[in-house]
Design brief:
The protein has 243 residues and is an alpha/beta fold.
Length: 243
Amino acid sequence: MNQIQQLQTMIDNSNRIVFFGGAGVSTESGIPDFRSVDGLYNQQYDYPPEEILSHRFFLQHTAEFYTFYRKKILLCEHPFTPRPNAAHNKLAALEQAGKLRAVITQNIDGLHQQAGSRHVLELHGSVERNYCMQCGKAYTADFIRSSTDIPRCSCGGIIKPDVVLYEESLDSRIIEQSISALQQADLLIIGGTSLNVYPAAGFLGYFRGNASVLINCGATQMDNRVDLLIRDKIGAVLHQIKC
């Protein structure tokens, strides 16, 4: 039995699947990742990207933050609009088939929802949600894309993306829901993540189910702790799976 057949059998025998994914899920949609050789963190800027994407930098250098954010996170200069790929689409199909209970994602691009997934737990927030820091009014990502300099609310307040910046804490409600989903899962599929980002990666310790699968192109700290390891792109693998 090859690896795809093994994965298919695991999925066929499961009814409470949880998927935990990272940047590699979206790279097949054309969204650059952060930590690869050509990733965001290995490019040269006036400030380190980790500093630009920090809470302190946002408050002290808001205009410079948004210049970087529009270009590198919202991809305003990208040659095309990223769309859900085979991984997003298959996960949505598995949910609709009653097999998958939750997607826990470290990504902030909203592609899982665009593909049709409903139970998506966004550990690091989403670019699709933005709010006024003064009155709380909500704004879309398109509003931020079309704005210039510092985007401001109709009340005059500064608008902040609902993404978790460095120095900020994860949403406690999302943490609780993620842990609960992992504790109730019978199959855990991990895909497209280096598992180097904490505390997110640490949540996987709550899984107590029957089997675990790791699909990733590079090595991770969990390679020897899963039941099935597949070295490939997550979309290329899930595309071959039947619901």
